[in-house]
Hints:
By secondary structure, this protein is of the alpha/beta class. It has helices at about 15-25, 45-55, 70-80, 100-110, 135-140, 170-175, 185-195, 215-225, 230-245, 250-265, 270-280, 295-305, 310-330, 335-350; strands at about 5-10, 30-40, 60-65, 85-90, 95, 115-125, 130, 145-150, 165, 200-210.
Amino acid sequence: xxxISVIVPIYNVESYIAQCLKSxxxxxxSDIEILCIDDCGNDNSMNIVKDYAANDTRIKxxxxxxxxxxxxxxxxxxxxxxxxxxxxIDPDDYVELNMLELAYTKLKETGFDSVxxxxxxxxxxxxxxxxxxxxxxxxxxxxxxxxxxxxxxxNDFPVNSWNKLYSLDFIKKNNVTxxxxxxYEDLEFYYRFYTKSEKVYFIxxxxxxxxxxxxxxxxxxxxxxxxxxxxxxVIEKIYIYLNEEKIFEKYKNPFIGMxxxxxxxxxxxxxxxxxxxxxxxxxxxxxGYEKNDFHYFLKYFRKYSQSSxxxxxxxxxxxxxxxxxxxxxxxxxxxxxxxxxxxKKYVFRVCLY
Length: 353
């Protein structure tokens, strides 16, 4: 049995896959299997993979029936993985040759469920590496390599799956998966994992090389309206998960913060508006409203209300939104009256500015 299973979802990356596979097969830690998930692209990527597989028995090809996206591809890799640990490497990126060895050593030393690895960015247009300290803006507040993940800081870190090494046993035990057939699939995996695992070891050496390119999936998403709603579908899945695990009360504030940030970062407010309103109507705080749940709900929206995009969003849907928060969210009449009187001015301030 291999110690590490490396999952590589592959879709139309013929210009980059060779460099990616070369960096994996030549790792100083060799006790690995390389699961290449064929996501049914239409270029020469898989022929290149087959050439590598002919010379390295550690490479296994798993073919999906149709194109289903990186989340579904990684989930297929999880089902087939035989290793004790999981590494995800995107096919247009590459890694330093000692990355898996250092990550494996730290995971064994600490006994944690995952290790995070610093990255460096390769600008594909400029054909050069950018600053090595890409993640320092996220991690420099921590003095030590051990990071404690809490509800207060869970939204402070990049959620990408590809610069980490995970315990497969922990993943299976806690049913941690990526979102199927949706972009932003890393977000659900991140929340499922780090609401259960609260200690991370961070290797502050840039060993993962992320390729910044114009025609990547998320860059294409900026040009195509069809997938812009995916982030809110993923957030709804996270909301369902938090309630199923009975931890929504604990993660309520970061959940709302994540939702508001996603609205603010959306490219087309008009397009996402119906999806967001539908999601807002589904939020059902499990705790009694006498504990000021509604206050915290509004507090988060007020916190981000300086964003011009958020103001435009609320202005364009404020009839639906006000009706929702002033009548639907508070089911008990005496509390509804109390909160309407106390917070109505703030709601209209956010909506109408």
